[in-house]
Amino acid sequence: MARSGKDGDRRLKTAKKRTASSQRWLERQLNDPYVKQAKADGYRSRAAYKLLGMDEKFDLLKGVRRVVDLGIAPGGWAQVVRRKAPGASIVGIDLLETDEIEGVTILQMDFMDDKAPAALEAGLDGAPDLVLSDMAANTVGHKQTDHLRTMGLVEAAVHFATETLEKDGAFVAKVLAGGTDKDLLDLLKKHFRTVKHTKPPASRKGSSEWYVVAQGFKGRAGQEPD
After folding, report:
1. Nearest-angstrom CA–CA distance, 165 and 160
2. CA nearest 77: which of 225, 180, 169, 200?
């Protein structure tokens, strides 16, 4: 391992079986201040700082009581909720196995499974007042296809949120560069008082990810605040 005299970046000697892309990923991880901070703070991933950044800007976690975490693995966002709102009930779902987090109900199943919405609702003692989605489809290398697959997950998350949220609740979802598709944006504006796009400081500059933050759920017909 050597250091660059110019900027002190850490470099890895290329292993015989390591691809160029994995080499770049490892070097980026070694040089990423959020990765280092996550280890120091006890968070499972640097993604924790994305939620912390959005919470600082939008007060998402203030007073929350019931939270749904879509795409919970490895658990960084749930850890943030636990620390910022220790009394909140949290249920999360992911296809990937996620290590236990004290006070969090974790479901290992596909969110697109027809049984998933009911299973998530059963994990709480009432309607959620915050639905978080950090889901993204596995990429296949075709930009348009990857975009469509990820936006399909966002669309499913939006429908789940509008069918389950408590009145005045909030919804946050990862989207891609260009933001939320017009139809989904119109749907969000129909159901929420404010809808904004944001790129947290912890999102890598070269990343295409953005987040949509919808607050002030208007509720469904006849619905009153809990």
Report:
1. 8
2. 200
How confident is the model over 37-61, as a mean pLDDT? Answer: 95
**Residue 104 pLDDT:** 97
d(CA 14, CA 37): 26
Q: Residues 106, 72: contact at Cβ < 8 Å? A: yes
The pLDDT, as a whole number, for residue 3 is 33
Whether the full predicted model's pTM is greater than 0.85, yes or no, is no
Query: What confidence score (pLDDT) does residue 23 get?
Result: 52
In contact, 49 and 34? CB cutoff 8 Å? yes
Residue 59 assigned as binding residue: no
- The rounded distance, in Å, linking the Cα atoms of 43 and 47 is 9
CB 154 within 8 A of CB 175: yes
Closest to 68 in 3D by CA, of 125, 112, 113, 114: 125
Amino acid residing at 198: T
Over residues 148-169, the pLDDT tens digits come to: 787 889 999 999 999 999 999 9
**106 contacts 96 by C-beta, under 8 angstroms:** no
Residues with catalytic roles = 174
Count of structural domains within the chain: 1
The reply to whether 75 sits in an annotated binding site is yes
Q: Look at residue 104 and give its three-state secondary structure.
A: strand
Asked if the structure places residue 114 within a domain, the reply is yes
- For the cut 50, the answer to whether the pLDDT of residue 10 exceeds it is no
| 146 CB neighbour count, 10 Å cutoff | 17
146 is in an annotated binding site: no
Q: Is position 109 within any domain?
A: yes
Containing domain of residue 149, as a range? 47-217
